[in-house]
Amino acid sequence: MTAGNNGADTPENDDPFAYLYRSEGGQDGAPGSAGDGAATRQPGVPRTSYNQVRAVGQRQYGQQAQQQVTYGQQNASYAAPETLPGGERTRATPAPGHGGGHEPRRRNGLLIGAVAVVAVVCIGIGVAMLTNNAGDKKSDNAGKPGPTAGDTVKPDKPTSKPKPGELPKEDAGSLRLDGGASTAKDVPGARSAGGTYVAGMNTPGAAATWTVDVEKAGQYKLYVGYGVPGKDANLTLNVNGKADSRPVNMGNFAHAPEGAWDKGWTKTWSLVQLNQGTNTIKLSCESGNQCDTNLDQIWLARP
């Protein structure tokens, strides 16, 4: 079936410029409607143009623009990115469930990581500062000479009362010192708190006095911790104002070589008769004694 049989228009021999040859208000096939040389529509010949033919200047393009404006009014809530304040295009935040749900979590992870790095750095700086301070203190103390026998050193630990049922025990540095006796800590090995001991006992009249309380009167063992420079020594023992006829024997029981004060620390004991309550026990360097010794501790025990 052809276009001439069914009356349908065909694109064959289509002349899109035919309207240019018509006079204004002219119609197809009307005499004089076409210009010079214009083709006229013949009866029975199909139309060769699909477009509504209008004269030049009659097409109203403004209607299409008006429709676009109307469409914009219907969507007045829409704002292009370029119309935002500042005229800069901004990135829209994706709605949850549309591929943007992992962005906040990722940012949180980066923030936590940054905070952790800062914390580690701060801890490292603090440790370095503490280490440097400790090293400085050691360096400062390294150049300082230790105390000598004539120096007085305050005991590191105060005297404490014994628990019920226990007998008293004291560091010699806590005793009352007289006659040139003094505390020191330059000889290592003393068993007292902080290594403090009583030195200067080799001076006649030097003494260390202990005031002690006991619950019951009777006989007790008096222990004395001491150190000698590799040779024997002894001191006079005085209990409650009465001197004992036998001195306290301070032999070189540690078998230290002569002159080795740090190797001569040991102990000895003597029997003493004490009253109930307060008693005074004095160790002193008297005429006839060999007093070259240091004292570190003194205590009582039951015989």
Mean pLDDT: 74
What is the count of helical runs? 3
What portion of the residues fall into strands of 2 or more residues? Answer: 15-25%
Overall shape: it is elongated
Rg calc: 59 Å
Question: Helical proportion?
Answer: 10-25%
The chain-level structural class is: alpha+beta
SSE pattern, N- to C-terminal: HHHEEEEEEEEEEEE
Low-confidence stretches: 1-5, 28-38, 65-76, 95-100, 141-150
Largest sheet: 6 strands, antiparallel
Distance between the termini: 146 Å
- Could you tell me the number of beta strands? 12
Short summary of the structure?
This protein is α+β, with helices and mostly antiparallel strands and 303 residues long.
List keywords for this structure.
303 residues, 4-stranded antiparallel β-sheet, disordered N terminus, alpha+beta, 12 strands, elongated
Can you describe what's shown?
- The chain is α+β, with helices and mostly antiparallel strands and 303 residues long.
- 19% of the residues lie in helices and 22% in strands.
- It has three helices and twelve strands.
- The chain has helices at residues 3-6, 62-74, 103-142; strands at 169-171, 176-178, 182-184, 197-199, 207-214, 218-227, 233-239, 242-243, 248-250, 265-274, 277-284, 294-301.
- The strands form three sheets. Strands 2, 5, 7, 8, 9 and 11 form a six-stranded antiparallel sheet that branches. Strands 1-12-6-10 form a four-stranded antiparallel sheet, with no helix packed on it. It has a two-stranded antiparallel sheet with strand order 3-4.
- The radius of gyration is 59 Å and the shape is elongated.
- Residues 1-5, 28-38, 65-76, 95-100 and 141-150 have low confidence and may be disordered.
